[in-house]
Amino acid sequence: MKLVIAIVNNDDSAIVVSELTHENFIVTRLSTTGGFLMVGNTTLLIGAEDKDVPRIKEIIRKFSDTRKCVKPTSSTLGRGLSNNGLELNVSVGGAIIFVLGVDEMEKF
Ligand code: 2BA
Question: Does 85 sit behind a cis peptide bond, omega within 30 degrees of 0 on the bond before it?
């Protein structure tokens, strides 16, 4: 058994979860925040049989778009001056997927 951890864009999460559950995969959805951009994203936990992992990845890939985001930055120029107008263009996603082995799963 595997645990698939997928970090997806908030805007894609509804369709990704809907497509996964439509194919009878069981999904837990967590509201998370990226450490770099400090904006919300969605982390999905999907416990699944090994044979189902390729299909899960396929669904997530299909419905996760890559986006360009702008990260505002600020820099100190010394003597109390600062430049708050700098921006950094960042490409985010489609999705980040981790696949972990699961020793045991029990439901009480
Ligand atoms: P954030 O940490 O907010 O990162 C958003 C995007 O900013 C990243 O997109 C990447 O393009 C860029 N980025 C991240 N850290 C950077 C850095 N130190 N310097 C320059 N650019 C940086 P993605 O790679 O698509 O990641 C999207 C989100 O997935 C991340 O949001 C984070 O929440 C998560 N993530 C990505 N890789 C991860 C990892 N190895 N472990 C845990 N979470 C990860």
Answer: no
Atom 31 in ligand 1: residue holding the nearest Cα:
34
Task: Give tens-digit pLDDT for 20-69.
Answer: 999 999 999 999 999 999 999 999 999 999 999 999 999 999 999 999 98
d(CA 9, CA 6): 10
Which residue segments constitute the domains of the chain, with CATH numbers given?
2-66+93-101 (3.30.70.120)
This prediction's pTM = 0.89
CA of 36 to the centre of ligand 1 (A): 6
Nearest CA to ligand 1 atom 35: 96
36 lines ligand 1 (CB under 6 A): yes
